[in-house]
Every structure is written in structure tokens, then in C-alpha cells.
Amino acid sequence: MTAVQHPRHRLDELLQNPVRFSIVAALDRAGTLGFGEVRDAVEITDSALSKQVAALEAAGYLAVGKSFVGKTPRTSLTLTRHGRAGWRAHLATLREIAGDPSA
Amino acid sequence: MTAVQHPRHRLDELLQNPVRFSIVAALDRAGTLGFGEVRDAVEITDSALSKQVAALEAAGYLAVGKSFVGKTPRTSLTLTRHGRAGWRAHLATLREIAGDPSA
DNA sequence: CAAGTAGTTGCCACTTTGGCAAGTGCTTTC
DNA sequence: GAAAGCACTTGCCAAAGTGGCAACTACTTG
User: Fold this and answer.
1) What's the pLDDT band for A46 if we cut at 50, 70, 90?
2) What residues contact A43, with CB distance under 8 A and at least 6 apart?
3) Is residue A1 a part of any domain in this protein?
4) Is residue B103 part of a domain?
5) Chain A environment of B98 (Cβ under 8 Å)
6) How long is the CA A69 to C1' D29 vector, in angstroms?
7) CB of B47 under 7 A from strand D?
8) pTM for this entry
9) Domain count within chain A
């Protein structure tokens, strides 16, 4: 039989970072948000957000849409199905480790 | 009025590490555990655990007791009041970010 | 053309973390 | 009583993650 591993091994590396955790949390709740909205909500610099968004996008966790609202460009962020699944699994694992009965 | 910061700023740096998170979670549930018990539960090497325990102890999060059970030394780990408070606050912040209504 | 908006990227320095091997303190075995 | 064992501890180091800052892209407005 396979040894049962401690749940920490199942934590999502991407979501262990507080910034990415917060970005994904915000998107999970809001559905879609603009780059600026996320930047202001999470309180991070453009540079840092841009890098973390790129990481999440590369992992297929979120879709980045470029469009124009009037004359100004708008980058919209939305969780993918995969991202949402990863988020939920991560939360469930955290709860499992913490001993949360609702895990 | 003071600007309300995003809750991620209140996350406990010590508890952002999965190993320390797991150690503290286990101790919160069990009360006191031996070094070996934690090592086996969390599935980590002696070296890594020793270092993380030292970090948690330095932060006043846990008390390390050295004693002998028969002839073999036993290092027991217990959360301090401060450690328990930090743990609870960290969990509450995670829930707050995640939008958990029970936060 | 200069300047501004909305991001993006490169470069770099700092920090964290783990593995591995050697070391510590105490005890049992040959 | 020297060697070996047990339960950790520590030093050294290499790899990886992050953020700051400044320069850069792309497009628009004055």
C-alpha cells in the first residue's frame, strides 16, 4: 500500500505566495477584475503584480484579456476552470492540515 | 481615517512556510508532541525540522523541553500562548482573504 | 514632438530553504 | 573503556523565490 503523505505535500506552490493567494482569492470572489483593481486591492506595485500575473497565466490559472475601454487599455483578469480548481484544492488542503472539520 | 490595508499584510511570515504551518497546526491539535513524532507526521528530515523548530522557538512560538524517557533523550514541543495566538490570527487572516464568511 | 497612461521586462541584491556531512551529549555493547 | 548508537544540531553551500527600480513598449492626447 502507498504511504499516506502529509497533506502539506499537496499544497499548491503557486498559491503559497501571499500575493498570488490574494490575487486568486479576489478573482474567485469577483469573477473578473481589471489589472488596476487587483493592484489597488492587493496593494502591490505594477511590477510585482505583472510578474505574478504572468506566473499565474503561465500555469494556466488565469486568463488575461486585453481590450480598450474608450481610449485606455484595460487588462482584465479571470480565473480559468483550472485556476478555480487549484484554488479550491489548496484551500481544502489548508483546512485539512489545520484540522478544520469542514475540510 | 487610516487606510484599511489588504489583509495579506497581516499574514504571519513564520506561518507562511508550509513546514512551519504544519508543525504549528499539529501542535495546536495535539498539545505537545515529541520531535520524532512531528518529524514523522510532517515528513521532513531531522535537519530541516531542527532548523524550523529553532526558528519557531526564537520567535517565542513554541517551547522546547529536553528530558529523558528512560535512557533516551526526548525533545518535546509545545505551543506557547503567543504561538497559539499567532496561529489563530494567521488562520483568521487566511479566511478573511479567502472570503470565508466564518472569518 | 513631448508627455501621459497602462503595463512589461531586465538586472540585481537579498532571503529563504533544503541537503549533506560532521559534530554533540549521553548510553549501551563488546 | 573504546567503539557504536541514538537523538538531535550546526555549518556550508547551492538553488530558487521575490521585490525594487529604471528603462522600455504601445497607444493616445496636447
Assistant:
1) very high
2) B5, B6, B8, B9
3) no
4) no
5) 25, 28, 91
6) 16
7) yes
8) 0.91
9) 1
